[in-house]
Amino acid sequence: MTSAKSVKVLGIGGSLREGSQSERALRIALAAAEERGVVTELIPGPELVLPFYDTAVPERDERARKLIEGVRQADGLIVVSPGYHGGLSGLVKNALDYIEDLREDTRPYLDGRAVGLAAVAYGWQAAVTTLEQLRTITHALRGWSTPLGGSINSAETKFDEGGGASDEKSVRTLRLIGEQVAEHALLRAR
């Protein structure tokens, strides 16, 4: 039986702004996953500044290699994107494109991994459509999106530095997403 400490959940997302609302949302979900007994790692927005993904260019810079290896080693993922103009950020989309480098792995793409998803946008329409796009991308990459996804309207909900938010329902949703990813990863590790 695999030790729970060897089970890893990787968090990807946020924006270029350190401590962004979407990064704070991601940290809440990761904290809940960690409380379930998994090891977590965060690759926040500033670390996702990568060259545009290009299959014709086999060389990868240090940040891209870290991302690819992090996904490769992960038993589950949590992805949180800001919503920009009704869709996920280019930063997060480009990072997800790099998962193509796992196509030849024994466990290709996101195969067998639970993926928790949330979108944080200024308005409900952008939050909902961004979450929908994240789910579509996850399915295309053979990932299992958790039953619960988070659409968070940052016009109404503000996340604080201490891991809380002005709306307790948003915190509960993010925590449940993290718990679902951790539980799935732990079950698959048995």
Provide structural commentary.
- With 190 residues, the chain is an alpha/beta fold.
- Helix content is 39%, strand content 19%.
- Strands 1, 2, 3, 4, 5, 6 and 7 form a 7-stranded mixed sheet that branches.
Low-confidence spans: pLDDT under 50, at least 5 residues?
none
Distance between the termini: 5 Å
Helix content: 25-40%
Q: What class, by secondary structure content?
A: alpha/beta
| Overall radius of gyration | 15 Å
Shape: globular
Q: Beta-strand percentage?
A: 15-25%
How is the main sheet built?
7 strands, mixed
Number of helical segments with 4 or more residues? 5
Helix/strand order: EHEHEEHEHEEH
Give the averaged pLDDT, no decimals: 95
How many E strands?
7
Compact summary:
39% of the residues lie in helices and 19% in strands. It has helices at 21-35, 62-73, 90-97, 124-140, 168-189, and strands spanning 8-13, 39-44, 76-84, 87-88, 114-121, 144-145, 150-153.
List keywords for this structure.
190 residues; globular; 39% helix; seven-stranded mixed sheet; alpha/beta
Summarize the topology:
Layout: E1 8-13, H1 21-35, E2 39-44, H2 62-73, E3 76-84, E4 87-88, H3 90-97, E5 114-121, H4 124-140, E6 144-145, E7 150-153, H5 168-189
Parallel strand pairs: 1-2, 1-3, 3-5, 5-6, 5-7
Antiparallel strand pairs: 3-4
Domain NADPH-dependent FMN reductase-like: 7-147
Organism: Amycolatopsis echigonensis
GO molecular function, one term: FMN binding
